[in-house]
Design brief:
This protein is mainly α. The protein folds into two domains: about 20-70 and about 80-225, no CATH class; about 230-355, no CATH class. The protein has twelve helices and six strands. The longest helix has about 30 residues, at about 80-110. It binds fe (ii) ion (2 copies). One fe (ii) ion binds near residues 101, 130, 175 and 214.
Length: about 350
């Protein structure tokens, strides 16, 4: 056991159960959608591919994967101080994101049952995977003497409503970026085993294949609804979702560079690689990709990093409470301006290249 003096300062709902991190624009989101509209979707143009993906889900390749082995059975007290805090935060964020997928897919499986059987079963099997992922991460948190009360999280979080089309854009991207995040960490630690300071990273190789299959499922659904991909609105929305997902990850990760450093990764290089790969993958289904090789892309994002740093400094400062919103305003405005500049950067049109191997 760790003495309370050595524990990082986390608030607890009750002993060992962590108060969930405060919701902000950068924390993982919980979603809900129009279930009737989704149930009425005609998927027949791509039913064969969806059926093939369903067979893969049924095969359940990772049935025996998420079993904690003896390497977990040791004390993790040597991961202490700031590194311990960053570890717990990483596990909590990952667990919350996985659990948010579980809740959405579970609900979709339930609501589509009897109305759209192929989709209903796919969602149920994906919720099985996400439950395993979230459970495994929550168990890992308990190695650091904390855990999340997932029932409490279900009730206490606010849910963002998205029309089915936007749910597909958002979940497709979060699955694919999840795949690239996990596999990149895995490959790095394979080359540098001395940096693998905790066993969970060893599970990421098979784990990320689940996320890849989930992403392929949303790719196949969107292709069954060509109207979601082939008009000018789809181009504008794809840009919006790509940018939101990339910017959120970049701002989050740079702020937590020390966590990545603790496993031997440079957060900036890691993110640039993950963004590049996810952007290329997304080009197989979305009508546009972002021009992430344009130096302006990271120049604008770096201004947001600076703004966020200033915002945190204002929060931590001793300025009177009424003054803080005023002090923050120019930084919020600047973030808005950067986002608009990023959004209006010329994207790469991939409509012509549809089907090409990227
Ligand atoms: Fe997952
Ligand atoms: Fe997933």
């Amino acid at each position: 056991m760790v003495s309370s003096a050595e524990k990082p300062a986390f608030q607890e709902i009750r002993p060992g159960v962590k108060v969930p991190a405060k919701e902000t624009i950068l924390t993982p989101r919980f979603y809900t959608t129009d279930f009737d509209e989704m149930a009425e979707m005609d998927i027949s143009v791509n039913e064969d591919e969806l059926q093939a993906i369903l067979e893969e889900f049924r095969a359940d390749y990772n049935r025996h994967h998420f079993v904690r082995d003896e390497e977990f059975n040791q004390s993790w007290d040597h991961i202490d101080g700031e590194t311990r805090r960053l570890f717990v935060e990483f596990l909590e964020r990952s667990c919350t994101a996985e659990f948010s997928g579980f809740l959405l897919y579970k609900e979709l499986g339930r609501r589509l049952k009897g109305k759209s059987p192929v989709l209903a079963e796919c969602f149920n099997l994906m919720s099985r995977d996400e439950a395993r992922h979230a459970g495994f991460l929550n168990k890992a948190m308990s190695d650091f003497n904390l855990s999340l009360d997932l029932g409490f999280l279900t009730k206490s979080r606010s849910y963002t409503f998205f029309k089915p089309k936007f749910i597909f854009y958002a979940t497709y991207l979060s699955e694919k970026i999840g795949y690239w995040r996990y596999i990149t960490i895995y490959r790095h630690l394979q080359k540098h085993p001395e940096d693998r300071v905790y066993p969970i990273f060893r599970f990421f190789e098979n784990w990320c294949q689940d996320e890849n299959r989930h992403g392929d499922f949303f790719d196949a659904i969107m292709k069954s609804q060509p109207q979601m991909l082939n008009d000018w609105k789809a181009k504008l929305w794809s840009r919006f979702f790509l940018l939101s997902v990339f910017a959120t990850m970049f701002l989050n990760d740079i702020q937590r560079s020390d966590f990545y450093a603790s496993i031997g990764l440079d957060a900036r290089e890691y993110d640039i690689y993950v963004i590049k790969k996810t952007n290329e993958t997304a080009g197989r289904v979305f009508p546009v990709m972002l021009d992430v090789d344009n130096p302006k892309f990271y120049e604008y994002l770096d201004i947001c990093i600076e703004n966020n740093k200033k915002l945190r400094e204002i929060d931590a400062s001793s300025s009177p409470k009424f003054l803080k919103p005023l002090q923050k305003l120019p930084h919020y405005l600047s973030n808005g301006v950067q986002f608009i500049k990023l959004y209006f950067m010329k994207p790469i049109d991939v409509t012509e290249m549809e089907g090409a191997v990227l």
